[in-house]
Amino acid sequence: MVRNLLRGAAGGAVATAVMSLVMVAGSRTGLMPDQPPKRIARAALPGHRHRPKPGEGVAGALAHFGFGMTAGSLYGLLTRGRRIPAPVGVGYALAIWVSSYQGWVPKLGILPPAAEDRPGRQAVMVAGHLAYGLTLATVLNRLSTRAAKRTGHEDTTSA
């Protein structure tokens, strides 16, 4: 169980890095003027929840990686070290997007619900979550394959 948790955290870190690249590209193309993790950190830091604050970019990046690693750990526990088809990881990531951008983020007044938000931001965030899910599944499947080869218990489940 601990091994699956740690593998999931590692996969979540790699997947969050890939997702962050998608988000930075979205920002640079003008589709997303500011990053949701920064907006979430801004709301959590003391002071007015919608005014820029010192350190919110760093706090947002740390929170984003923490959230991504936690979600990866949960995925690692749910998959129990087995190779799982990549579309399952993508579905898992899209479920995170829905629960976040149609759920707790708008309920806390940080951003509007996805359907009412800037279309560009939501396109970037969906693409980012697709990248997260695909990367998470790929990394964990590779770690599972390596572990199976070391122990001699090859899993033939498709990736």
From TrEMBL:
Q: Where are the transmembrane segments?
A: 5-26, 58-77, 84-104, 124-143
- Alphabetical keyword list: Membrane, Transmembrane, Transmembrane helix
Q: Does the keyword Cytoplasm apply?
A: no
Please identify the protein, giving its name as recorded.
Answer: DUF1440 domain-containing protein
